[in-house]
Every structure is written in structure tokens, then in C-alpha cells.
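Researcher: I'm preparing a figure for a lab meeting and need a structural model of a single chain. I don't have an experimental structure, so a prediction will have to do for now. The sequence is pasted below. Please return the structure as C-alpha cells so I can convert it later.
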Amino acid sequence: MSVNFTELCDTVDENNANACALYDMVTGVIEDRGDYSVGGIGTGVDTFFLIFSGTMVFMMQAGFAMLCAGSVRQKNVKNIMLKNLLDACGGALGFYTIGFGFAYGGDDETGKTFIGNSYFGLRDFDAYAGFFFQFAFAATAATIVAGTVAERCKMSAYLCYSIFLTGFVYPVVVHAIWSSNGFLSAFYQDSDDLFQDVGTVDFAGSGVVHMTGGATALIAAIVLGPRKGRFYDEDGNPLEEPATFAGHSASLQILGTFILWVGWYGFNPGSALAIANEDSAQTAALCLVTTTMGAATGCVTSMFTDSILETMKTGETSYDLTMAMNGALGGLVAVTAGCSVITPWAAIIIGACGGWIYMGFSKLLIKLRIDDAVDAIPVHFANGFWGVLAVGLFANGKLMAIAGYNSEFEGLFYEWGGGDNDWNLFIAQITSLAFILAWVGTLMTPFFFILLKAGMFRVDALEEEVGLDISHHRGEAYDISGAAKKEDVEELMETRASRHGKVEVPKEVAQAADDAEA
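Model: Understood. Here is the structure written out cell by cell.
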């Protein structure tokens, strides 16, 4: 469709005033152009929306880096930061060469397929904004694993499983649930042959991205084993109480949390993939609200529940920043699958449950002596599972129709409220969860065991004790060589004492001197 703005603006009225104002602005830059394609403008808007959203998702890499860096001990900061950087690099190369082809290749073919078979190296594919957006998601799935195995994983192993995950394991899950000929896809090209007549509804990837990454992290943590001194003493005997390895910077942790939260506004609304039409715009706007509600309630329920339990147990009350941060992230993961098909009040319930699920699963891991350095498994795996399942309970039919899904089958609560008892959507959600668990477990378990047996997975015990920054990255992340020397501080205090009588060394100064001496 084309519009001649020159003729349209000959008579300006209330109906075309805005269009003519836009025309006047454009002609100030581009002259001698009388015809403008409305379709072209819509395509441009959609493309920019996808580029901007993908950039926000990619910015989440910085959030993961800050969160992980703040959560590990000072002696391992460089190592975890480099792994987060290489996630993006390995993910880009792996997803470009084969991953994208396995995920979306063969979409022009008829019939359901298990894996894509074209677009390798983007051959015969030129929708570059779409590739970029999907790459950012793939890199996110790989980054989830970084924090879990922090402080004890070899760099070579990390590169191996990062490329394997983004190049093959993750793309098959994407193909099954998101491609137009995936066997579980709600967007399958033949709408009369959808799985359970509805397909799996995982709008932005609670299962596809977060549960896939979280399941990989869980397997890696079990095979790799805990950090030295976390659950066992030097003789291998279980400790009565697990040792706590506090992160070295709460500031980096909270910075990372906020960057991730902001990035989620590209992750969820951006999954609408377009915005230049009424339905897509409404879906994207709804995602902003449900994402916010999920994060807020996850944070509040996790932190305050932890405080209440502490009060009941000890009589003392404190407020744990880690619970608040991870509770918010858990809530974000939980609403990601259904952000486009649930109402804000449902997002509040799902987010609140996400906070509790994070708490419970975190404590379960400790009880099972599974060491997760940053609690990524409870956040991404447990809440990824819950997020997909929650869609089968809370999906609203009207919102499903707007988002492009088959609205005949709603979440169970709406089905029961309407007097029906169709379990189609719930069964589809359960099936996708089972598929992800089976696929990731079948591939990643032997993969990690092979790395372990080959001596490629875990660093040497002494290297772990010294810290990976010194043993692998040419020195510590923080240079404290410029701190005052202990003998200089003592000389200064003696000089002052001779002038003014006895002068005590301030505790902060003495501590800084001791640190420099050490």
C-alpha cells in the first residue's frame, strides 16, 4: 500500500494532521520523495523493535557477569568474568554455524520434524534481525551454567559445553517448541494438527531457555562435585554444617540483578517479534506489566518469608539481600512462559510462588550436597519448570487469541471456571517439560562424565585453593599493591605519638596495612 502525502496534506483536518506533521518532518531530511510505503514503515518499525529488544537481551550478559562476579570469592573474579564474556563469543559462533540451522532450518518444509536442516551459516537466510534476537537467547541459556560451576571448572571444559549447548542441545529444544514445524509447537504450520490441538505455550522461554540452561547446570554441578570445603573436610568427611562461601561484593550482585531485570523488558515483550500492529503492540505492553509484577512479588515473598522463618526459629529478624535478589529473578523466570497470556493478578500469584520455589529448591540443593555457587539452579531450573506448568493453570483464552495461540483450550482454572474440563493445554505443557528433561539429561550427562574422566572438567585442588585468577589468569582481579605498608603505618603513628603523646592506630588503617602485608 502506498500513500501520496503531497495530495493527502493539501487539505489538513483532524484525521490527517498527525500524518502530515510526520510528513513535514521527513521531508526536511529526504526531499523529492512523494510516495512512502506504509508496509515499508511497518517493517522498519518491527525490525527496529526486534533489534532493540535483542540488544536488551544481549545486555543481560553484563547482568549475569556482574551478578556472578559479586557472588564468588575475590580470588575467582577474573575467571568468572572471562567465562561470561566467552559465553557470548562461543554462543555467537556456535549458533551461527549450526545452531540456528538446527533450530529454525527447514521451516518452509511440510510436516513435523525433529531438527532443522538448513540455514547453516545463515545460508539462504537474510532476516538478520531475527537471527540476532535468537542468538541473544541462546547465549543466555549458556550463561546460566557459568555461575553454578564457578570457582572449580576448567576453561577448556567451559568452552566445550558452551558451544555444544548453543550449537546442538538448545537448538533442538527451540525447534520442537518454537519453530513452525516442531512437534510440540503452538505455531505449527498446520493449525489442524497441533499437539493436543493447542501446542506448548512457552512465549519467551521459561522452559526453552531457562529450564534448558538450568537442567544443564544441575547435571554439571552433580558431576563436577562441590567446591573444596563446602560440604566435606580435607579428609572427605561430611561437615555437620555446610560451609558458607560469601560473595565478595554485594554491590556487584545488586547491579547485576537490576541489569537483568531491565534486560527482561527486552526478553519478554520482545518475544512478540513485532509491534507495528495492534495485537502485537497489546501483547508487548501486557508483557511489560506481567514481567514487573512477577519480579516484584518474587522478591518480596522470598525475602519476607525468609525473615519470618528466621524470627520463628531464633527470635531475631534480619533481611537477606540474596533472598531478595534471587527471589526477584525467580519471579522473572516464572512469568516468562506465560507473560503474554496471563493477567497481571495471575502474574502476582505466579511470581509469589516463584519466590517460594526458589527458597525451597535452594535449601533442597544444600540438603542433597549439590553446590551451586550462585543459586542459578533454583532460579532457572526450578522456576523454569514452574513457569511452563503455570501456563497450564492460568492461561487466559482472550489473551491467548491476541498473542496468536489457539484460544479454544485455556488454563485449567479458566476451564473449570467456565464449566469445562479440557486438559489439553496442561498436557501439552507437561509433555514439553518431560521432553526438555529427557533431551538435556540424555545428552549432557554423558558429555560431562566424559569431560571429567578425560581430566578436562575440574581444576587441580591446589589451583582451586589458591584461586583461579592467580592460577589461570595472571593475577588477581583487584590490585592492592598501592595500599599502605604496615611498617610505614607504624612509623607514621610513632612520629605522631612523639609529637602529641600516645596515638592509637585507627582500626581501618591497621586492617588495610595487615591486608597489604598479607
